[in-house]
Records
---
Amino acid sequence: MRNIKLVIEYKGSNYCGWQVQKNGTSIQSVIVKAIEKATGENVALSASGRTDAGVHALGQVANFKTASNIPSERFAIAINSFLPEDISIVESVEIDADFHARKNAKGKIYRYYIWNSPRKLSVLSGAATRIPGELDVAEMSKAVKLFEGVHDFAAFKAQGGSTKTSVREIFGASVTEVAVPFEIEGGRLVCIELCGSGFLYNMVRIISGTLVELGQGKRSETDILEALHSGERELAGKTLPPDGLYLYKVLY
Amino acid sequence: MRNIKLVIEYKGSNYCGWQVQKNGTSIQSVIVKAIEKATGENVALSASGRTDAGVHALGQVANFKTASNIPSERFAIAINSFLPEDISIVESVEIDADFHARKNAKGKIYRYYIWNSPRKLSVLSGAATRIPGELDVAEMSKAVKLFEGVHDFAAFKAQGGSTKTSVREIFGASVTEVAVPFEIEGGRLVCIELCGSGFLYNMVRIISGTLVELGQGKRSETDILEALHSGERELAGKTLPPDGLYLYKVLY
């Protein structure tokens, strides 16, 4: 059996998340069906990790075993022809038989996009989270560095995860203003980027919520340090919605 | 009665266009219903012009007469609270009683966005038209200038319009590479901008299709001049899909 690695992009707005759920259509099931149409095989597709309902990906990675003799780079084209517009295979390569998208992942990069404006972002609905009002990006950009390094992120974790430890390493973190899509006027787009060894349930959305509250002047760097040290969820900020969250890259 | 002018943004993908049609939901009807919820009045809402199914707007303009005493700038907020995510009122102002969004329009700016990449743009599905393969943007940028000035655009018009003359003036035209949204890798975003006195049915989509074919080396500047002079539709390029088209601004 050959082992095929896929790099996957999707807009998560119309799905219940990566994994099969009781309600809604999962991204995984849509891709598995497309692979079946392309190869005739009902494969087991393992991703680097789940993404929740409404969360997007620019570089999700998954792998599957196949007996098909389609040339490795042609899998992307073949599978894409059976996928809807909002899911696509960016790249397909054949990889070592023991490669596993989740077990071999050394880290991930997540990005959280905030549209800071009184104006709704209708032409890009679902693609960023809107925060109206003042937002001090320079302060957020300083504070995000507090998350770098090895920390117990217990305060930045939603209930429901199944991991043994809440200690993770953040290799790098930044908050920057980036180009506004389609030159839409009246607002700015802010990107929170976190690169780390692994992420707890809702961790990026809670860290982003905490940074937004700091940018709004509702929270200080001392509050963030206290949350990190105490591990108490109440000391961290609100969980932001899934709309702004992108799994940007998986590191191997 | 007061006369209220609205600046409107929408993603057209889920609608049958601005105007009420037999099938599908129109943007106009959604906004009229929202105005009714906000004011209690069933108003006549006149736009600067129709947009077709799937076409977007960043600066559509419409006006309506009302007896409501809502402060003019609060109409935007009141109506927005009854609109879905993909339609929004950017601005509301009270204007002279004789202002009419269509009759008073002196010109319009349309933008057509092309995602030039082998990669699908899933996280922005419906927001740009994908053209894979080589595209000579420098040549397109030169050729677009041929459309500037007063011309008979008969060759760049779909059947079905109801205008008396196909002579229009293009005040300015450009083709530029613009920032890729969300720093998506593996492609570039090209923007065709046309500012003109008025536009015939499908005119921007046919001009854009002609420029793309020129950028692909399938068509020369001489071909464009011949199409302009002859008025023969067959001499112009294909009509591109609505996905990339934005009504950017209406000039008064």
Note: DSSP finds five helices and ten strands in chain B.
---
Amino acid sequence: MTAHAEYELYYWPTIQGRGELIRLALEAAGASYVDVARLPESKGGGAKAIMPFLGGKKKGAATPFAPPFLRTGGIVIAQTAAILSYIGPRLGLAPEDEPGRAHVLQHALTAADLIVEAHDAHHPIAGSLYYEDQKSEALRRAKIFVAERVPKFLSYFEGLLETSEGEWLHGDRMTYADLCFFQVLCGLEYAFPRAITSLSSSIPLSLALQERVGAQKRIAAYLASDRRIPFNEHGIFRKYPELDSEVPAG
Amino acid sequence: MTAHAEYELYYWPTIQGRGELIRLALEAAGASYVDVARLPESKGGGAKAIMPFLGGKKKGAATPFAPPFLRTGGIVIAQTAAILSYIGPRLGLAPEDEPGRAHVLQHALTAADLIVEAHDAHHPIAGSLYYEDQKSEALRRAKIFVAERVPKFLSYFEGLLETSEGEWLHGDRMTYADLCFFQVLCGLEYAFPRAITSLSSSIPLSLALQERVGAQKRIAAYLASDRRIPFNEHGIFRKYPELDSEVPAG
């Protein structure tokens, strides 16, 4: 049962998706949480656990538009960045000072922008259509995504690490922004291996951060567990080799 | 000169864009601010005022990825939602309690998601290509955007207003989330007038909120001033009649 966990996460049970950014934060902090929709249906799990929240008409409930959403302390919060901004300080994954918190949110939002673009590379027309029904448009969008957007975003993050006062995106402590960037790098490596390999020599600090996050004791245990859903072709990052290519020099 | 304003906003000087969400918050609160790039170049303005920040290599500076960004109290914050989350409480445009602040950020992020989709309706392949070079894809995407996404988002926001404990998205005080939703409604009315007209009878609370925001004394004065840049075909919301249509019933 879910009654004794401090956090209840609601997200699609078969993909990493945006929910993975919340899972990583909860896991990194060793938080007491339940990934509700991954429970058996007999214990209140499954995708159907999500549905009642989306059409909710409870007064003052701030009904979610879509998963992920998180229930904690009697409230429900939706939107990945809003959830992270709320739980980050509680989990020790955000700085104490308000300007620092704003910067960590800023970095998480930039990573989220890249996630949207990675998704739309295979779904440029509509999320409600199959990939196969928008493949010609995807080929066109992905080519520009790989040639222009991936290097622009990754060199930007590399620059943040070059100018950080520590080894993390914000100073000398890991924050939820680092977890978001870690997830983006893992996803891009899965979906666009040729692109990332061709860029790897230019993003040494980013790859070192990715390795450092993956080696954190709790994160390493999580990644090795069956709680980490493998990447697959239903999520944001999809291995469609026809969309992947080396990044042109320059 | 800009030295005496509490807030310096940096955003492209010829479009509303995402910067408008910051402008509206500063205007609604009567804040002391300068819209730096709208100053004459002789006074440090113009788009070139933005550039030095983007390639910045200052230690610990959290260099912006893109405008808008805001300079205040010696720090620079980028990403629209991070800026609003930071200045909202300072401007009296966010609740006092943390759950309330999370919900207001949640609503602003949902409005921001709709803004991304409104932009990509005319630029489904790449921001770096002209509309004319992705028009066939835009026709396809916009048709689904109007038929599925606009009604889904707007009925969602209408539901939030139905269940709010006050007349605003979050309770009985206007927040920056209301300003974001106001801007989305104004933009959709400009870019998709047939779609919005066909939906109008189903979103009375949303249209009443839009009118209420527009009638706020400071907002009304702003909208009537030359500080409000008119909508145009360089921004997020563009009047391309071929992309607009009535929302199919059902």
Note: The mean pLDDT of chain A is 96.
---
Amino acid sequence: VSAIAAEIAEQPDSLARLLRDGRDEIDALAARIVEARPAFVVVVARGSSDNAARYAQVLLGVRNGLTVGLAAPSIVTLYGGRPDLSGALVVGISQSGVSPDVVAVVDEARRQGAITAAFVNDAASPLARAAEHVVRLHAGPERAVAATKTYLAELGALAMLSASLSGHGWDELAALPARLAEALEEPRAIDAARFAGSKRLVVLGRGFHYATAFEIALKVKETSYVLAEAASTADFLHGPVAVMEEGLPALIVAAGRTPPELPSLLVRLPELVVISDRAELLGRAALGLRCPSVPDWLSPLVAIVPGQRFAVALARARGLDPDAPRGLTKVTETT
Amino acid sequence: VSAIAAEIAEQPDSLARLLRDGRDEIDALAARIVEARPAFVVVVARGSSDNAARYAQVLLGVRNGLTVGLAAPSIVTLYGGRPDLSGALVVGISQSGVSPDVVAVVDEARRQGAITAAFVNDAASPLARAAEHVVRLHAGPERAVAATKTYLAELGALAMLSASLSGHGWDELAALPARLAEALEEPRAIDAARFAGSKRLVVLGRGFHYATAFEIALKVKETSYVLAEAASTADFLHGPVAVMEEGLPALIVAAGRTPPELPSLLVRLPELVVISDRAELLGRAALGLRCPSVPDWLSPLVAIVPGQRFAVALARARGLDPDAPRGLTKVTETT
């Protein structure tokens, strides 16, 4: 079995470990937020962790009344800008905790007196040392170049922060490892052969699943070398929809609450993969991937699993080794 | 001549008109910002206007010390979330000013007591009515479905806001219409035939040109039906670089200050279009598109012009009518 497939399969255990061992650090950060009441939140991240940042924006906005923005590190690292972060909570998210641009933004924020936090798998990393609060992901070593279990752990830690801030949702979180195990078992195998001939894929999701769409597209790019472009269903209708033509496949994440534009999109996309918890949506796809039904705010943690599995199945159908992405190393350092 | 080509050519005049007639509204907004000192800025937009928002983030961060985030309208419209915007400046940007999701976020922000502003081409639109401050774009009616001159006017109005806030840059702005006219003349014609056979394109830019890369990719998708994916050069190295293979074309925007990873990227991308003001970078491309040299903060206003012209040339080389994007209408309303 490949490293990535093994790490996908570890996710229920990894999340259960985070729920058990990670709570103290997260509760401490939540207490600091409640006490200091930051005016806004900035998340700084790259790659899969930037997709976790997209989840943080919707999650903390919907459940906790926090306005969250994603940082543009170039402002600090390329131009020496000093945007005012003094009233902010600044969260760096990174598996390795080494990318210098992510560390630079957290450094600058702390210098200005912002509340800073690092969500990291490696508690001895430069990012962990830069931040006031450290939230360890407890995912264990990740060997595959394409991140899977650390992405899930990032979502899990963010969901725990949301629960700790609001005081509710812990019971729903506790039920999640079992739902993840179901997502690994059904469908038992994914047949992606039908989609193996295309070097292009459009991946759509909105709201909580904006992050899911971006993360699935990234996994497909990393493992199958297919140019997979992610967009929110709403943004897609404001221009990119023009690219759709017969034979261009699309994947839509439609679990939980779905956007009003979904029905009109479904009829425009004939070559379709659907990830959903609803039989009527799955039945309209060329390939329907069922995911367990969970509350909307936790849906990205289960809906990503069939997406990860689809990426691996697509790589294999294309005759590729999903553990050896072209041009990539496990740790990428950008400045 | 097509509507889009005519509107691309109008851009020097359109920007000169904005500089002449738009200043009072922008100075009034700047005075309000200086007086009220919002803790952060949120921009809400869709399509090309969302790319103008990407410019706003870097521009106001680098030149004005403001932290800018891009809104996720779904938080409000899909889930009924009420993220705290009370300490913010919330800017809606839209050509038409009608998309209900953009209006909903500005409505919610104003209800909470935020400073609100609408950057719109249509001053009678719902978005203009929703906001406290209106900044008219003075671009005149836009007939082509793919926005060009209104995107440029949005960048121009944001650059004017930055100049008004900082008190400097007006002389550099005043010189810009002449630079735009140069960008329309050189190169005199763009030969995109070499790239017409590919249905995929990667478009890269960072910092100020993050916006330029996204806007060029959107124009290519809208007019040439090529799946053009934009990324920052840094994000690209954190995963998507795996898609690169012989024959997959890339376009890099490398005008003004360029990121440290650029040299290593150039050698990895053989089938390359470069937009730059530097001869040594242009000489390394299969197709080099020179743009005028201007200060970094204004470079997106001139570098977009060869990008727009490349998109139109590519559409024609693919035998398409760039005025008739498949599946699109001029005004898109999403909720």
Note: Chain A touches chain B through 76 residues (CB under 8 Å).
